[in-house]
Design goal:
Radius of gyration: 15 Å
Shape: globular
Number of domains: 1
Structural class: alpha+beta
Number of helices: 3
CATH architecture: 2-Layer Sandwich
Number of strands: 7
Helix content: 25-40%
CATH class: Alpha Beta
């Protein structure tokens, strides 16, 4: 079984990072960068079914079906991930840990199976590294601790 983790330290309190990660109005500002999809119907509520929608490519319909399975705000969000209809779900976890000067955030994606799963985990890790190194920090800089986007922000969700 394949998996990956991406860990980043952000100089902001855990509550601000949590808001950027879970506020339905803010999530598309960092997930739609690169090849990432925009969320539809997302809410950080156990049992919530949502999907990420991206541009379809050869061999992929461009939709990831998800369901929230665990929430412990502002420290943990876990949801299932099904990239192709009929696939066994993998699991994504967002883990936030307060630390001196900010928050350590770890994106964890586990449960990939087979050779295709190994390849997919490598591709997704590359996309997540870009999102968490470039896009999420931009959102964190442009919101306040309540998750309100600055009036001077140039960030807009990509459609």
């Amino acid at each position: 079984m394949s998996e990956f983790r991406v860990t980043r330290d952000y100089p902001y309190p855990a509550q601000r990072v949590w808001r950027a990660l879970t506020d339905p109005g803010l999530v598309p500002l960092w997930t739609s960068t690169g090849q990432g999809g925009r969320p539809e119907g997302f809410s950080p509520t156990v049992g919530n079914r949502f999907r990420f929608v991206a541009k379809p490519t050869m061999g992929w319909r461009g939709i990831v079906d998800c369901e929230v399975v665990e929430v412990r705000a502002p420290h943990l969000l876990r949801y299932t991930w099904v990239g192709d209809e009929g696939d066994k779900p993998s699991v994504v976890a967002y883990r936030l840990a307060p630390q001196a000067g900010g928050t350590r955030f770890t994106w964890e994606h586990t449960g990939f199976t087979g050779v295709g799963g190994f390849a997919m985990s490598r591709l997704l890790k590359s996309v997540r590294e870009k999102m968490l190194t470039d896009a999420l920090p931009a959102v964190l800089r442009d919101i306040d601790d309540n998750g309100v986007l600055s009036r001077t922000s140039t960030l807009r969700a990509e459609g």
